Amino acid sequence: MLAVASAAVALVTVQGCSCTSATAQELLALKDLYGDYFKMGAAINTSQVSGSDSLGQATVKKHFNSIVAENCMKSEKIHPERDRYDWVPADSFVNFGTENGMQVVGHCLVWHSQLAPWFPLDDNGKLVCADTLRQRMADHINAVVGRYKGRVQVWDVCNEVILDDGTYRESPFYQILGKEYIPLAFKLAHEADPDAMLAINDFNMATSAKREAYVALVNDMKAQGLRVDAIGMQAHIGMDYPDFGEFEKSIEAFAGTGCQVMITEWDMSALPTVKRTANISETVEYEEMLNPYPNGLPQDVAAEWNQRMTDFMTMLLRHSDKITRFNAWGVCDSDSWKNGWPVPGRVDYPLLFDRNYQMKPFLTAVLNNN
Ligand code: GLA
Q1: For labelling alongside 340, which of 7, 45, 164, 334 has CA 20 to 30 A away?
Q2: Is the bond leading into 242 cis (omega within 30 degrees of zero)?
């Protein structure tokens, strides 16, 4: 497998280009370079799907063989009212992936955030009873998974159900049904599309208590005979967290359950860390010192960022027998949610392509080093 990747890089070298040059980038597609290791994926938005962002769309088509919807399949978008689904953006997303021969990942069926407001509430704004929530989950999962049966290959069934200390998140789902809602969601998703791969997904997966809790939860669901295929490690990371040794321990522990490991939402902020979670409701007020590179990333910081990513990717390649997908949360730096979170109005540099769609150097450096 190393030979194939090296051959691709060598091809560029014999044609007289350095591997970070524009010509090299014209020749190399990430999905080919990394094809023997894992799928290369990206979260994409509606402008990339429609082509109104034509450069973004071209980059997705060229470089990625897996896509996930950044927002349009979240319940607040796809099921905004109890009796109304908005299928249009999700249909376009799935068609785009199918037409381009990509793995299509559905994100996500059960999540406390970006949850349609009506979902857990009755007409008086109080939490519904257990039976009603079970029925609503069944209706939602049957409708969404059923509509894309055979065309969405992987579903993020439950997102962010455990906290960093290993306890269950007190989401409305948990408050109403207790931890039972998690296996229920997996059962319903499997019934709606028996061939789809089913994943559970979260951030800060390198935290030891969270790691142990996920291993226990997944083993427990498997012992009940439920289908759980993958554990998704979001990997919204920074220059000073997480410890890659701890991240590696989680890859090994998750693979030990028999699940595939997927890096589902990777991005690495180049900015000062103010929050280590991905809770989009927790923001911090803007201060100039928190936005140190509004006009471009200084060379020394870019070098440090690329070095840390070389280390991270090298570690992931060592585990390519366990990891089946590396998915970036966005395509180029200007797309990223990190420009607006946790501090609104910052300029960040967290993705695989810069604002001019130039590939970050670590992507080829890693393969040269291996
Ligand atoms: C979480 C979710 C994603 C996305 C990111 C940030 O990690 O799983 O859907 O919302 O936050 O935008």
Answers
A1: 164
A2: yes
114 CA: nearest ligand 1 atom: 10
Give the Å distances, CA to CA, from 134 to 76, 89, 110, 225, 279.
18, 26, 12, 20, 25
> What element of type H or E holds 89?
helix 88-99
Q: Is 73 in the pocket of ligand 1 (CB under 6 A)?
A: no
Give the confidence band of 201 by pLDDT, cuts at 50, 70, 90: very high
User: Active-site residue among 70, 81, 99, 160?
Assistant: 160
Encoded tokens for 296: 């471009």
Q: What's the whole-model pTM score?
A: 0.93
The CB of 337 under 6 Å from ligand 1? The reply is yes
Distance from residue 278's CA to the centre of ligand 1 (Å): 7
CA distance 194 to 232: 20
Asked whether the predicted pLDDT for residue 290 surpasses 90, the reply is yes
Amino acid at 251: I
Phi, psi (deg, nearest 5) at residue 254: -70, -40
Please, which residues have CB within 8 angstroms of residue 260's CB and are 6 or more apart in sequence? 197, 229, 230, 231, 322, 323, 324, 325
